């Protein structure tokens, strides 16, 4: 409905009565919708001071920094999440992606393998594993990862996998 200021007022009133995790998170979302990410960061940091092991606040901060394109700070918060909950899929995937796009495929590979160990089997994960293996010069593994990606693929992602396979094939042919 777009009544963000009314929502802000009601959520702040609710927090005066009882400090609840969900209410703080909703209030931070309201400020994100109002395009005030710094206020959302302040709210989440204040809540994190009260409840230092509440991973939802840490995840919220990481997401806000991701939205602000401050990947280094976001990764720091994702790492904090992993120090409390080592099986958090969002944190593992975000860190893996960060390392891949900062030209560290060997580190990204470890995190993507961790996702597979945690039971995440999707075309996207196997596609990313294949690319990490290729760029980490593990040539014996990347084709089997692409095969696994094709096995899990559907109409929404099969084109991306074939595109990546053709790019890798083109790079291999250029080196010969």
Description:
It contains ten helices and no strands. The longest helix has 18 residues. The chain folds into two domains: 76 residues, Serine Threonine Protein Phosphatase 5, Tetratricopeptide repeat (Alpha Horseshoe), CATH 1.25.40; 73 residues, Serine Threonine Protein Phosphatase 5, Tetratricopeptide repeat, CATH 1.25.40.10. The chain has 176 residues and is mainly alpha-helical. The radius of gyration is 20 Å and the shape is elongated. 32% of the residues are buried.
Kindly summarize this structure in a few lines:
The protein is mostly helical and 176 residues long. 79% of the residues lie in helices and 0% in strands. It has helices at residues 4-17, 21-33, 37-50, 55-67, 71-84, 89-101, 105-117, 123-135, 139-152, 158-175.
Defining key terms:
single chain; 2 domains; 176 residues; Serine Threonine Protein Phosphatase 5, Tetratricopeptide repeat; mainly alpha
- What overall geometry do the principal axes of the alpha carbons give? elongated
CATH superfamily of the largest domain: Tetratricopeptide repeat domain
Rounded to an integer, what's the Rg over CA atoms? 20 Å
Proportion of residues in β-strands: under 5%
**Ends: how far apart?**
60 Å
Low-confidence stretches: none
- Provide the structure class: mainly alpha
| Number of DSSP helical runs | 10
Q: Helix and strand succession?
A: HHHHHHHHHH
* Secondary structure: number of strands: 0
How many structural domains can be distinguished in the coordinates? 2
Class of the largest domain, according to the CATH hierarchy? Mainly Alpha
């Amino acid at each position: 409905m777009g009544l963000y200021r009314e929502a802000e007022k009601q959520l702040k009133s609710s927090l005066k009565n009882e400090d609840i995790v969900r209410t703080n998170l909703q209030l931070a979302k309201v400020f994100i919708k109002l395009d005030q990410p710094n206020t959302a960061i302040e709210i989440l940091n204040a809540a994190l001071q009260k409840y230092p092991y509440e991973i939802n606040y840490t995840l919220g901060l990481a997401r806000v920094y991701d939205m602000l394109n401050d990947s280094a700070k976001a990764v720091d918060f994702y790492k904090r999440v992993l120090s409390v909950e080592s099986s958090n899929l969002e944190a593992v995937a975000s860190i893996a992606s960060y390392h891949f796009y900062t030209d560290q495929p060997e580190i990204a590979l470890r995190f993507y393998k961790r996702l597979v160990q945690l039971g995440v089997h999707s075309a996207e994960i196997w596609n990313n594993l294949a690319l990490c293996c290729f760029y980490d010069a593990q040539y014996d593994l990347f084709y089997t990862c692409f095969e696994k990606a094709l096995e899990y693929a559907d109409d929404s992602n099969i084109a991306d996998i074939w595109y990546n396979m053709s790019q890798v094939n083109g790079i291999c042919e250029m080196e010969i």
